[in-house]
Amino acid sequence: MLRSSLLLASRSATIRRFVEHNPLTQRVVGRFVAGTGVDDALNTAAELVHSGLRVSLGHLGEDITEVAQVSTTVQAYESVLEALAEAGLAAAVEVSVKLSALGQSLRSDGERVATDAAYRICRAAGTAGTTVTLDMEDHTTVDSTLGILRTLRADFPWVGAVLQSYLRRTETDCAELAAEGTRVRLCKGAYQEPESVAFRSKNAVDHSYVRCLRTLMASSAYPMIATHDPRMIAIAGTLAAEHGRGPDEYEFQMLHGVRPDEHLRLARAGHTVRVYVPYGDDWYPYFMRRLAERPANVGFFLRSVTTR
Ligand code: FDA
Predict the structure, then answer these.
(1) Which one of 134, 179, 240, 303 is CB 3.0 to 4.6 Å from 245, fit for a cystine?
(2) CATH class of 34-280
(3) Record-annotated residues binding substrate (predicted)?
(4) Residues marked as binding?
Protein backbone atom coordinates (compact mmCIF):
# COMPACT_ATOMS: atom_id res chain seq x y z
CA MET A 1 0.00 0.00 0.00
CA LEU A 2 2.73 2.47 1.08
CA ARG A 3 4.93 1.19 -1.76
CA SER A 4 2.16 1.77 -4.34
CA SER A 5 1.44 5.27 -3.01
CA LEU A 6 5.11 6.24 -3.15
CA LEU A 7 5.50 4.82 -6.65
CA LEU A 8 2.42 6.78 -7.77
CA ALA A 9 3.88 9.88 -6.08
CA SER A 10 7.12 9.35 -8.04
CA ARG A 11 5.09 10.38 -11.14
CA SER A 12 3.19 13.29 -9.54
CA ALA A 13 4.30 16.80 -10.54
CA THR A 14 2.65 18.37 -7.45
CA ILE A 15 4.34 16.12 -4.92
CA ARG A 16 7.54 16.47 -6.88
CA ARG A 17 7.45 20.27 -6.47
CA PHE A 18 6.83 19.93 -2.73
CA VAL A 19 9.66 17.43 -2.17
CA GLU A 20 12.16 19.14 -4.47
CA HIS A 21 11.60 22.57 -2.95
CA ASN A 22 11.90 21.46 0.65
CA PRO A 23 15.45 22.49 1.59
CA LEU A 24 15.65 19.78 4.23
CA THR A 25 15.08 17.04 1.65
CA GLN A 26 18.67 17.48 0.47
CA ARG A 27 20.05 15.80 3.58
CA VAL A 28 18.19 12.60 2.83
CA VAL A 29 18.70 12.71 -0.91
CA GLY A 30 22.44 12.98 -0.27
CA ARG A 31 22.40 9.55 1.29
CA PHE A 32 21.41 7.96 -2.04
CA VAL A 33 22.70 10.43 -4.66
CA ALA A 34 26.35 11.44 -5.10
CA GLY A 35 25.64 15.07 -6.02
CA THR A 36 24.77 16.99 -9.14
CA GLY A 37 27.98 17.38 -11.16
CA VAL A 38 30.71 15.29 -12.77
CA ASP A 39 33.09 16.24 -9.95
CA ASP A 40 30.69 14.92 -7.32
CA ALA A 41 30.33 11.67 -9.26
CA LEU A 42 34.09 11.31 -9.69
CA ASN A 43 34.90 12.08 -6.05
CA THR A 44 32.38 9.54 -4.79
CA ALA A 45 33.56 6.95 -7.32
CA ALA A 46 37.23 7.50 -6.39
CA GLU A 47 36.46 7.11 -2.69
CA LEU A 48 34.61 3.84 -3.27
CA VAL A 49 37.32 2.49 -5.58
CA HIS A 50 39.98 3.29 -2.99
CA SER A 51 38.05 1.26 -0.45
CA GLY A 52 38.16 -1.78 -2.75
CA LEU A 53 34.81 -1.42 -4.53
CA ARG A 54 33.82 -0.97 -8.16
CA VAL A 55 31.24 1.53 -9.34
CA SER A 56 28.55 2.02 -11.95
CA LEU A 57 27.73 5.71 -12.42
CA GLY A 58 24.21 6.61 -13.53
CA HIS A 59 23.36 10.09 -14.76
CA LEU A 60 19.92 10.85 -13.29
CA GLY A 61 17.07 11.57 -15.69
CA GLU A 62 14.32 9.57 -17.34
CA ASP A 63 11.21 9.81 -19.51
CA ILE A 64 12.33 12.80 -21.54
CA THR A 65 9.71 14.46 -23.71
CA GLU A 66 11.84 16.59 -26.06
CA VAL A 67 14.32 15.18 -28.55
CA ALA A 68 16.67 18.10 -27.77
CA GLN A 69 17.27 16.61 -24.29
CA VAL A 70 18.93 13.54 -25.81
CA SER A 71 22.15 15.32 -26.82
CA THR A 72 22.44 16.85 -23.35
CA THR A 73 22.30 13.40 -21.78
CA VAL A 74 24.76 11.92 -24.28
CA GLN A 75 27.16 14.80 -23.64
CA ALA A 76 26.86 14.28 -19.88
CA TYR A 77 27.92 10.64 -20.36
CA GLU A 78 30.71 11.54 -22.79
CA SER A 79 32.11 14.05 -20.26
CA VAL A 80 32.00 11.68 -17.34
CA LEU A 81 33.59 8.88 -19.38
CA GLU A 82 36.39 11.16 -20.49
CA ALA A 83 36.93 12.31 -16.91
CA LEU A 84 37.01 8.70 -15.67
CA ALA A 85 39.69 7.81 -18.21
CA GLU A 86 41.75 10.89 -17.29
CA ALA A 87 41.48 10.04 -13.58
CA GLY A 88 42.61 6.45 -14.24
CA LEU A 89 39.31 5.11 -12.89
CA ALA A 90 37.82 3.53 -16.02
CA ALA A 91 38.92 -0.02 -15.19
CA ALA A 92 36.87 0.05 -11.99
CA VAL A 93 34.02 2.40 -12.93
CA GLU A 94 31.44 1.80 -15.67
CA VAL A 95 28.22 3.66 -16.50
CA SER A 96 24.54 2.71 -16.33
CA VAL A 97 22.09 4.24 -18.77
CA LYS A 98 18.30 4.60 -18.82
CA LEU A 99 17.06 4.43 -22.41
CA SER A 100 14.04 6.62 -21.56
CA ALA A 101 16.57 9.42 -20.90
CA LEU A 102 17.76 8.90 -24.49
CA GLY A 103 14.33 9.26 -26.08
CA GLN A 104 13.12 5.62 -26.12
CA SER A 105 9.53 6.63 -25.43
CA LEU A 106 9.36 9.63 -27.76
CA ARG A 107 6.38 9.16 -30.07
CA SER A 108 8.30 9.92 -33.21
CA ASP A 109 11.10 7.43 -33.87
CA GLY A 110 11.96 7.04 -30.17
CA GLU A 111 13.60 3.64 -30.48
CA ARG A 112 15.92 4.74 -33.27
CA VAL A 113 16.82 7.97 -31.44
CA ALA A 114 17.63 6.00 -28.26
CA THR A 115 19.66 3.39 -30.16
CA ASP A 116 21.78 6.06 -31.87
CA ALA A 117 22.33 7.90 -28.59
CA ALA A 118 23.20 4.69 -26.71
CA TYR A 119 25.60 3.82 -29.53
CA ARG A 120 27.45 7.13 -28.97
CA ILE A 121 27.70 6.43 -25.23
CA CYS A 122 29.01 2.91 -25.90
CA ARG A 123 31.61 4.29 -28.30
CA ALA A 124 32.77 6.76 -25.62
CA ALA A 125 32.85 3.96 -23.03
CA GLY A 126 34.91 1.76 -25.35
CA THR A 127 37.38 4.60 -25.90
CA ALA A 128 37.60 5.19 -22.15
CA GLY A 129 38.15 1.46 -21.55
CA THR A 130 35.00 0.63 -19.64
CA THR A 131 31.51 -0.86 -20.08
CA VAL A 132 27.85 0.18 -20.18
CA THR A 133 24.84 -1.45 -18.55
CA LEU A 134 21.30 -0.62 -19.71
CA ASP A 135 18.92 -0.07 -16.80
CA MET A 136 15.46 -1.65 -17.08
CA GLU A 137 12.41 0.56 -16.62
CA ASP A 138 8.72 -0.38 -16.53
CA HIS A 139 7.47 -3.52 -18.28
CA THR A 140 6.29 -1.69 -21.40
CA THR A 141 9.94 -0.97 -22.29
CA VAL A 142 11.40 -4.48 -21.94
CA ASP A 143 11.06 -5.66 -25.56
CA SER A 144 12.47 -2.40 -26.86
CA THR A 145 15.36 -2.37 -24.35
CA LEU A 146 16.35 -5.97 -25.11
CA GLY A 147 16.14 -5.21 -28.85
CA ILE A 148 18.45 -2.21 -28.43
CA LEU A 149 20.77 -4.31 -26.25
CA ARG A 150 21.14 -6.87 -29.04
CA THR A 151 21.82 -4.16 -31.64
CA LEU A 152 24.50 -2.60 -29.42
CA ARG A 153 26.10 -5.95 -28.59
CA ALA A 154 26.83 -6.57 -32.27
CA ASP A 155 29.53 -3.88 -31.97
CA PHE A 156 30.02 -3.69 -28.20
CA PRO A 157 29.68 -7.25 -26.85
CA TRP A 158 30.34 -6.05 -23.29
CA VAL A 159 27.08 -4.07 -23.04
CA GLY A 160 24.99 -5.47 -20.19
CA ALA A 161 21.31 -5.30 -19.30
CA VAL A 162 19.12 -5.43 -16.22
CA LEU A 163 16.45 -8.08 -15.71
CA GLN A 164 13.77 -7.80 -13.01
CA SER A 165 12.72 -11.01 -11.27
CA TYR A 166 9.25 -9.62 -10.45
CA LEU A 167 8.25 -9.84 -14.12
CA ARG A 168 6.65 -13.13 -15.15
CA ARG A 169 8.50 -13.06 -18.49
CA THR A 170 11.96 -12.67 -16.94
CA GLU A 171 12.84 -16.36 -16.61
CA THR A 172 12.51 -16.70 -20.39
CA ASP A 173 14.46 -13.47 -21.04
CA CYS A 174 17.11 -14.64 -18.61
CA ALA A 175 17.53 -18.00 -20.36
CA GLU A 176 17.95 -16.18 -23.68
CA LEU A 177 20.49 -13.64 -22.41
CA ALA A 178 22.34 -16.40 -20.56
CA ALA A 179 22.63 -18.42 -23.78
CA GLU A 180 23.98 -15.32 -25.53
CA GLY A 181 26.67 -14.86 -22.82
CA THR A 182 25.46 -11.41 -21.85
CA ARG A 183 26.39 -9.42 -18.74
CA VAL A 184 23.13 -9.55 -16.78
CA ARG A 185 22.36 -7.39 -13.75
CA LEU A 186 19.65 -9.33 -11.96
CA CYS A 187 17.44 -7.26 -9.62
CA LYS A 188 13.93 -7.70 -8.20
CA GLY A 189 12.35 -4.65 -9.86
CA ALA A 190 11.36 -1.21 -8.62
CA TYR A 191 8.30 -0.05 -10.63
CA GLN A 192 4.56 -0.23 -10.10
CA GLU A 193 3.44 -3.13 -12.29
CA PRO A 194 0.06 -4.84 -12.83
CA GLU A 195 -0.45 -8.39 -11.59
CA SER A 196 -0.96 -9.55 -15.18
CA VAL A 197 2.76 -9.06 -15.84
CA ALA A 198 4.42 -9.15 -12.41
CA PHE A 199 4.49 -11.37 -9.33
CA ARG A 200 3.06 -9.56 -6.33
CA SER A 201 4.29 -11.54 -3.32
CA LYS A 202 7.86 -11.22 -2.04
CA ASN A 203 8.03 -15.00 -1.96
CA ALA A 204 7.21 -15.35 -5.66
CA VAL A 205 9.64 -12.56 -6.61
CA ASP A 206 12.40 -14.19 -4.55
CA HIS A 207 11.75 -17.64 -6.06
CA SER A 208 11.92 -16.14 -9.53
CA TYR A 209 15.18 -14.40 -8.52
CA VAL A 210 16.73 -17.71 -7.44
CA ARG A 211 15.60 -19.51 -10.62
CA CYS A 212 17.23 -16.77 -12.71
CA LEU A 213 20.38 -16.93 -10.58
CA ARG A 214 20.63 -20.67 -11.24
CA THR A 215 20.29 -20.10 -14.99
CA LEU A 216 22.92 -17.35 -15.04
CA MET A 217 25.43 -19.16 -12.86
CA ALA A 218 25.20 -22.30 -15.01
CA SER A 219 25.75 -20.35 -18.24
CA SER A 220 28.54 -18.45 -19.98
CA ALA A 221 26.87 -15.16 -18.99
CA TYR A 222 28.39 -12.75 -16.46
CA PRO A 223 25.99 -12.58 -13.47
CA MET A 224 25.70 -9.23 -11.69
CA ILE A 225 23.74 -9.94 -8.52
CA ALA A 226 22.01 -6.66 -7.73
CA THR A 227 20.33 -7.04 -4.36
CA HIS A 228 20.66 -6.07 -0.69
CA ASP A 229 18.81 -9.18 0.39
CA PRO A 230 21.01 -11.32 2.66
CA ARG A 231 19.24 -14.51 1.53
CA MET A 232 19.77 -13.81 -2.17
CA ILE A 233 23.40 -12.87 -1.50
CA ALA A 234 24.01 -16.13 0.38
CA ILE A 235 22.33 -18.26 -2.29
CA ALA A 236 24.31 -16.51 -5.05
CA GLY A 237 27.56 -17.18 -3.16
CA THR A 238 26.71 -20.86 -2.81
CA LEU A 239 25.73 -21.19 -6.49
CA ALA A 240 28.91 -19.41 -7.63
CA ALA A 241 31.01 -21.86 -5.57
CA GLU A 242 29.03 -24.85 -6.90
CA HIS A 243 29.76 -23.72 -10.47
CA GLY A 244 33.43 -23.06 -9.68
CA ARG A 245 33.16 -19.36 -10.49
CA GLY A 246 36.05 -17.23 -9.27
CA PRO A 247 35.62 -13.66 -7.99
CA ASP A 248 36.16 -12.23 -11.49
CA GLU A 249 33.39 -14.40 -12.97
CA TYR A 250 30.41 -12.74 -11.23
CA GLU A 251 29.83 -9.73 -9.02
CA PHE A 252 27.57 -8.40 -6.31
CA GLN A 253 26.00 -5.00 -6.86
CA MET A 254 24.23 -2.66 -4.43
CA LEU A 255 22.93 0.87 -4.41
CA HIS A 256 24.91 3.79 -3.02
CA GLY A 257 23.71 4.50 0.52
CA VAL A 258 22.06 1.12 1.02
CA ARG A 259 23.85 -1.33 3.36
CA PRO A 260 27.29 0.27 2.90
CA ASP A 261 28.78 -1.99 5.59
CA GLU A 262 27.73 -5.01 3.56
CA HIS A 263 29.49 -3.64 0.44
CA LEU A 264 32.75 -3.60 2.40
CA ARG A 265 32.17 -6.90 4.16
CA LEU A 266 31.67 -8.72 0.86
CA ALA A 267 34.64 -6.99 -0.76
CA ARG A 268 36.90 -7.86 2.19
CA ALA A 269 35.73 -11.48 1.90
CA GLY A 270 37.20 -11.48 -1.63
CA HIS A 271 34.07 -10.87 -3.72
CA THR A 272 33.82 -8.33 -6.52
CA VAL A 273 31.33 -5.66 -5.40
CA ARG A 274 30.05 -2.80 -7.51
CA VAL A 275 28.09 0.17 -6.14
CA TYR A 276 25.52 1.89 -8.34
CA VAL A 277 26.08 5.62 -7.84
CA PRO A 278 23.52 8.04 -9.30
CA TYR A 279 24.34 11.72 -9.77
CA GLY A 280 22.68 14.73 -11.42
CA ASP A 281 19.82 17.15 -10.85
CA ASP A 282 16.89 14.96 -11.75
CA TRP A 283 16.91 12.85 -8.59
CA TYR A 284 13.19 12.89 -7.69
CA PRO A 285 11.86 9.65 -9.31
CA TYR A 286 14.98 7.69 -8.32
CA PHE A 287 14.70 8.94 -4.73
CA MET A 288 10.98 8.06 -4.50
CA ARG A 289 11.67 4.51 -5.72
CA ARG A 290 14.24 4.15 -2.92
CA LEU A 291 11.67 5.33 -0.36
CA ALA A 292 9.11 2.89 -1.78
CA GLU A 293 11.50 -0.01 -1.32
CA ARG A 294 11.79 0.29 2.39
CA PRO A 295 9.39 1.81 4.95
CA ALA A 296 12.39 2.59 7.22
CA ASN A 297 13.65 5.00 4.55
CA VAL A 298 10.34 6.88 4.73
CA GLY A 299 10.70 7.27 8.51
CA PHE A 300 14.25 8.49 8.04
CA PHE A 301 13.03 10.97 5.40
CA LEU A 302 10.13 12.26 7.53
CA ARG A 303 12.38 12.69 10.57
CA SER A 304 14.87 14.64 8.47
CA VAL A 305 12.31 17.02 6.99
CA THR A 306 10.51 17.64 10.25
CA THR A 307 13.51 18.04 12.59
CA ARG A 308 16.70 19.97 12.30
P1 FDA B 1 14.17 -6.26 -0.95
O2 FDA B 1 13.78 -4.85 -1.17
O3 FDA B 1 13.23 -7.38 -1.23
O4 FDA B 1 14.79 -6.40 0.46
C5 FDA B 1 15.16 -7.68 0.97
C6 FDA B 1 16.00 -7.55 2.20
O7 FDA B 1 17.21 -6.83 1.88
C8 FDA B 1 15.37 -6.75 3.31
O9 FDA B 1 14.48 -7.53 4.05
C10 FDA B 1 16.62 -6.35 4.09
O11 FDA B 1 17.09 -7.43 4.85
C12 FDA B 1 17.61 -6.05 3.00
N13 FDA B 1 17.53 -4.62 2.63
C14 FDA B 1 16.95 -4.09 1.55
N15 FDA B 1 17.09 -2.74 1.56
C16 FDA B 1 17.74 -2.44 2.69
C17 FDA B 1 18.17 -1.21 3.29
N18 FDA B 1 17.90 -0.01 2.73
N19 FDA B 1 18.84 -1.28 4.46
C20 FDA B 1 19.09 -2.45 5.05
N21 FDA B 1 18.69 -3.64 4.54
C22 FDA B 1 18.04 -3.63 3.38
N23 FDA B 1 15.32 -1.83 -10.39
C24 FDA B 1 14.74 -1.73 -11.62
O25 FDA B 1 13.53 -1.89 -11.73
N26 FDA B 1 15.50 -1.44 -12.73
C27 FDA B 1 16.85 -1.29 -12.66
O28 FDA B 1 17.50 -1.04 -13.68
C29 FDA B 1 17.48 -1.43 -11.38
N30 FDA B 1 18.83 -1.29 -11.24
C31 FDA B 1 19.41 -1.61 -10.05
C32 FDA B 1 20.80 -1.66 -9.94
C33 FDA B 1 21.39 -2.08 -8.75
C34 FDA B 1 22.89 -2.15 -8.68
C35 FDA B 1 20.58 -2.43 -7.63
C36 FDA B 1 21.19 -2.91 -6.36
C37 FDA B 1 19.21 -2.35 -7.72
C38 FDA B 1 18.62 -1.93 -8.91
N39 FDA B 1 17.23 -1.83 -9.01
C40 FDA B 1 16.67 -1.68 -10.26
C41 FDA B 1 16.39 -1.83 -7.77
C42 FDA B 1 15.87 -3.22 -7.44
O43 FDA B 1 14.93 -3.63 -8.39
C44 FDA B 1 15.20 -3.25 -6.05
O45 FDA B 1 14.13 -2.37 -6.04
C46 FDA B 1 16.10 -2.93 -4.90
O47 FDA B 1 17.38 -3.43 -5.09
C48 FDA B 1 15.52 -3.51 -3.60
O49 FDA B 1 15.42 -4.91 -3.68
P50 FDA B 1 16.39 -5.92 -2.90
O51 FDA B 1 16.81 -6.98 -3.85
O52 FDA B 1 17.49 -5.18 -2.27
O53 FDA B 1 15.49 -6.65 -1.85
Answers:
(1) 240
(2) alpha beta
(3) 98, 289-290
(4) 98, 136, 164, 188-190, 202, 227-228, 289-290
Instruction: Please give the residue that has the higher pLDDT: either 116 or 16.
Output: 116
CA 20 to centroid of ligand 1, rounded, Å: 23
pLDDT, residue 305, reads 60
Q: Which amino acid is at 270?
A: G
Phi first, then psi: give them for residue 151, nearest 5 degrees.
Answer: -60, -45
* pLDDT tens digit sequence for 39-63: 999 999 999 999 999 999 999 999 9
b/e burial code for range 239-268 (CB count within 10 A of at least 16 → b): bbeeeebeeeebbbbbbbbbbbeebeebbe
Report the percent of the chain where pLDDT is more than 70: 96
List the domain boundaries for the chain. Answer: 1-33+283-308, 34-280
Residues with CB under 6 A from ligand 1: 135-136, 162, 164, 185, 187-191, 226-230, 253-255, 258-259, 276, 293-294
